[in-house]
Amino acid sequence: MGHPVDRRAVLLGVGGLLIGAAGCSETSKTQAGPSPSTSSPPALPSAPSPSASASSALPATTVWRPNRDDVEPGVKLRAVQVVEAIGAWGAGQGGVAAARKRVAALGAAGALVDQAGALLPAADEAALQVVDAQYGGILADSASVLVVCRQWTPGHAGGTTVDVRLSRAQPRWRVTALHPARPGGAAKSLPGAARQVLADSRIVLPPAAGADIRSGNVHASVLRALLDLAGTYRMYVSVVRSGHPLDVFGTSRPSDHPLGRAFDVWQINGHAVVDPGTSRRLVESFMRDAAAAGSYNVGGPVQLSGGSGNQFFSDNTHHDHVHAGFTA
Question: Of 118, 221, 251, 254, which residue is 20 to 30 A from 325 by alpha carbon distance?
Answer without folding.
Answer: 118
